[in-house]
UniProtKB/TrEMBL annotation:
GO terms for biological process: lysine biosynthetic process via diaminopimelate. Keywords: Aminotransferase, Transferase. It comes from Pseudomonas syringae pv. japonica str. M301072. One of its GO terms (molecular function) is pyridoxal phosphate binding. This is Succinyldiaminopimelate transaminase.
Amino acid sequence: MAGWCSRRFGVPQGWIDPARNVLPVNGTREALFAFTQTVVNRSDDGLVISPNPFYQIYEGAAFLAGAQPHYLPCLSENGFNPDFDAVSPDIWKRCQILFLCSPGNPTGALIPVETLKKLIALADEHDFVIAADECYSELYFDEQTPPPGLLSACVELGRKDFKRCVVFHSLSKRSNLPGLRSGFVAGDAEILKAFLLYRTYHGCAMPVQTQLASIAAWNDEEHVRANRDLYREKFAAVLDILSPVLDVQRPDGGFYLWPNVGTDDAAFCRDLFVDQHVTAVPGSYLSREVDGVNPGAGRVRLALVAPLAECIEAAERIRAFLSK
C-alpha cells in the first residue's frame, strides 16, 4: 500500500513509512466512520464539513461523534465542486474535519491540485483535518493524466509529514472487489497513531487471506486498466443512447452519470422503475436542503456497474420511458 501510494501519487522514496503512515482497514466505509470518532472533540461546537451531495457515512459519522454536519453545495455552475471560497472564516474556525471526495460521488467531479493546496493552507490556519475519500481515484478516462490526490498536493508543497492530511483508498471500485472489504488509510502519522489506538477497541484485524489477496490487487495495474477500458466503453455506449433525450454529460471520473431529469427526481425514479424496471437513485436522497435549496433535486444517479449489455439495455429502457 505504501509502495502503491508512492507510485500512484509520486511520493518520494522514504516519505511514507508503512509502520507509521499507513493503516489497513476493512473497507473505507467503517474507516471513514471510525476516523471521525477519533478526530472530533465532543467538547467543542465542532463542524464536519462535506460536499453536498455526499456519501452518507460522512453525515452519520458526524452526528455520532457529537459534531454537526455542514454541507457545501456542489452545483453545475461550479463544475460540481464546492465553492470553498464562499465558506466564511467563522465556519472554518469551527471545522474539525473537512471531507473531500474526488472524483465525487455522485458527480464525478475532480478537485484540482491547486485547490487541494489552498485547502491545506486553510487547514493549517484553522487547525482542522482534511479527510480525502479517494475511492474512485482509479476510475478516469485519460490514461496519461490520472487525477491528483491529497498526497499529490503534499508532494508539491514539500509536506513530508502530511500534517493534517489523511487519504482513504479501497479495492472496492479500483479492483471491483467491494465484497472483499479491504482498503487503507494513509497520511499524518500522529493522527493515524490515535486512529490505531481507537481501532484496537473498535476495529478488527484484516483476515490473512484478505491481506494476501489485497497485496496481489494493489501490486497489479493490468486489471485496473482493463476495468477503466470497460467503463469507457460503457460510458460511450450509454451516452450515445441518452444524450439525445436527457441533459447528461460524461463525468471527470467515477462510474456514475448525474443527469438533470427536469422534474421531481423521486417521482422520476419511481415511475421509471414501475414502467421499465430500471433502478436509479433520486438525487435529492443523496443531498440535504440548505437555505431552501437541495443541490441534488431534479437529478438522478445512474451507476454503470452492470455488464455492458445490461447498461445498454437499461439506457434503451430509459430512452423509451422518456419518449412516452
